[in-house]
Write a structure and sequence with these properties.
mainly beta; rod-shaped; signal; Spore coat protein U (SCPU) domain-containing protein
């Protein structure tokens, strides 16, 4: 029994001179990053084709024989796509009546948008295939006459 007490005393004594465990500690670290909003417009087919309807009061890329212009828009998301109003158009000199021009677009791909003429928010990253249509309309009894017509539409992604 004395030996046991002596052994216990030695063990307890050694415990006081042996290195002690350090107190545990914790810390947190923070990571930050920034993804810059980006948007690019790539012209796939920059020339749409306008054709008239039977009454000659509508000139449109949506009429039979017409075709839309096409662009691809690639973005990180968080931007808006829109079309500027036609600010100038080329018409035959003898066409002196007013034409109301109306650009519209539809999208497929990373986001689907049915035909619209208003700004659309791009909700996520990816590429959208955009068909851009243009319609010119004469009012009252006015009609399109023989000659070449052209109008430019600006696509915005901002």
């Amino acid at each position: 029994m004395v030996r046991l007490k002596h052994a216990l005393f030695v063990i307890v004594g050694l415990g006081s001179v042996l290195p002690q465990d350090a107190d545990a500690g914790t810390a947190t670290v923070t990571f930050t990053g920034t993804v810059a909003t980006s948007c690019s417009v790539n012209v796939v087919n920059g020339t749409g084709t306008l054709t008239t309807n039977g009454a000659l009061n509508n000139l449109s890329s949506k009429n039979p024989g017409g075709s839309p212009a096409k662009v691809d828009i690639t973005t990180t998301g968080g931007v808006r796509v829109s079309l500027d109003a036609v600010s100038s158009a080329t018409t035959p000199a003898s066409d002196t009546t007013t034409t109301a021009w109306n650009p519209t677009y539809s999208m497929s791909g990373a986001q689907t948008v049915t035909e619209t003429g208003v700004s659309t928010l791009m909700t996520g990253a990816g590429t959208r295939n955009v068909d851009i249509n243009l319609t010119g309309t004469k009012s009252g009894g006015d009609s399109f006459i023989d000659g070449n017509y052209a109008a430019t539409v600006t696509v915005r992604c901002e």
